[in-house]
Design goal:
By secondary structure, the chain is of the alpha/beta class. It has 16 helices and 8 strands. The chain has helices at about 20-25, 40-45, 50-60, 75-85, 100-110, 120-125, 185-205, 210-235, 240-250, 265-275, 280-295, 300-310, 320-340, 345-350, 355-365, 375-385, and strands spanning about 10-15, 35, 60-65, 90-95, 135-140, 150-155, 160-165, 170-175. Strands 1-8-5-4-2-3 form a 6-stranded parallel sheet, sandwiched between helices. Strands 6-7 form a two-stranded antiparallel ribbon. Helix 11 runs antiparallel to helix 13 (about 320-340). It is globular. It starts with 10 loop residues before the first strand and ends with a helix. About 50% of the residues are buried.
């Protein structure tokens, strides 16, 4: 394993009644004015919004409403939230939803305290913000694990760039699996595949020899696969949902990344595809992963073969590692079909023209942990294979 220093400050309230327990414990230090941030209408339709407002106002808090955060949060939306937070002198940001809401609010929390434009501050000046409005997260849609870290994926629509900005690390997160019943089944399974993607992208990084982090990772991957199947069979299976909510947190709380340099090449490709098409992140990963891994498996056959056996149950008896590795990739592709996830960009509903795919290939970040150093033409070919 690589050398590492590990410290993890996010406090997690997990299980039934997690929101009430979190607010009871954290409300006294949240300040007088709380920004309640959320996405679309499901938070209001399901009564989650009204419940939170009642709890906050019952504790004497002034609630500032910041809704309408879109699935691929934009830089413009970040600036809107930061301006609102400044104008209302917000003391605490309470983000409710999934990764898009949390990503937006992490950057809002930083930008509201920063005089400079945060994109220029981070990407041009190479600096990180150090002052934030404190942030707490209520998870209604798991998958991204965004409540566990300080990175936010933000889309700059003008520049056609979807990439990371760094903001507030949440002080705490409330993870009540029952709240995931408030989102559509397909959306929940899309998020669960994103969790699987995070684990795979971490596992397939370096070092490629077996290590403790990878052994834990493979167990989490098996758990995700098993429980996605359980939810697909019975969307009301709360035990399976609770496992997937925790799997999501495990994917991004740093445990699986200890001593690793992650791959995350699929994420970088999908981010840029999303920047041009605004398609669903988890579903885009489901389309791209098999095509990408067919290219990467020959470059790290032992690592892919071990994954094929441990996660997908491929029988390696009498077979060479490269063959076992590709059987694992085929098993992954079959699983996406089994879960009803798209297998092509056409099924995803995104533009797959040569011009768009070429633009994505030419602008996607190339990651150092990838098993094979891809060039722009090869990324274009991978995307073309996904049509």
């Amino acid at each position: 394993m690589e050398s590492f220093t590990y410290d993890y400050p996010v406090k997690n309230y997990f299980g039934e009644g997690a929101v009430e327990r979190a607010l009871e414990a954290e409300m006294p230090v949240m300040g007088a004015t709380v920004m309640l941030a959320y996405g679309g209408g499901s938070v209001k339709r399901t009564g989650v919004y009204d419940k939170l407002v009642a709890l906050l106002e019952g504790a004497g808090k002034q609630v500032v409403d910041f809704g309408g955060i879109m699935p691929n949060p934009t830089y413009e939306k970040v600036q809107e939230g930061a301006a609102l937070a400044r104008a209302e002198k917000v003391d605490f940001v309470l983000a409710v939803g999934g990764g898009s809401v949390f990503d937006c609010c992490k950057v809002v929390s930083a930008q509201a305290k920063l005089d400079a434009d945060i994109a220029e501050f981070e990407r041009v000046q190479g600096k990180r913000p150090s002052e934030f409005i404190p942030l707490g997260c209520v998870v209604t849609l798991s998958g991204t694990g965004a409540e566990q870290n300080d990175g936010g994926v933000i889309t700059d629509e003008k520049a056609h760039v979807k990439g990371p900005l760094f903001g507030a690390l949440p002080k705490w997160a409330a993870l009540d699996p029952a709240l995931t019943l408030t989102v559509p089944r397909a959306q929940f399974l899309s998020g669960a595949f994103d969790s699987l993607s995070h684990c795979m992208e971490t596992y397939f990084g370096a070092p490629r020899e077996r290590n403790a982090s990878d052994d834990v990772n493979l167990a989490v991957q098996r758990n995700i696969v098993r429980n996605m199947r359980a939810v697909a069979a019975d969307e009301g299976d709360l035990h399976a949902r609770s496992e997937l909510v925790y799997d999501s947190a495990m994917g991004e709380n740093g445990v699986l990344k200890i001593g690793k340099v992650g791959d995350f090449q699929c994420h970088m490709i999908q981010h840029q595809y999303g920047a041009y098409t605004h398609t669903n992140h988890g579903l885009g990963l489901a389309v791209i992963h098999p095509a990408l891994y067919r290219r990467l498996a020959p470059a790290a056959p032992e690592q892919f073969a071990h994954w094929a056996v441990e996660v997908w149950g491929v029988d390696a008896t009498g077979k060479d590692a490269p063959d076992v590795a590709l059987e694992g990739v085929s098993a992954l592709a079959a699983f996406t079909r089994e879960m009803g996830l798209p297998a092509t960009l056409a099924e995803l509903g995104g533009d797959a023209s040569d011009d768009t795919l070429r633009a994505v290939a030419d602008t996607a970040v190339l990651t150092p942990g990838c098993a094979k150093k891809l060039d722009r033409d090869e990324i274009f070919q991978i995307l073309a294979e996904c049509r």
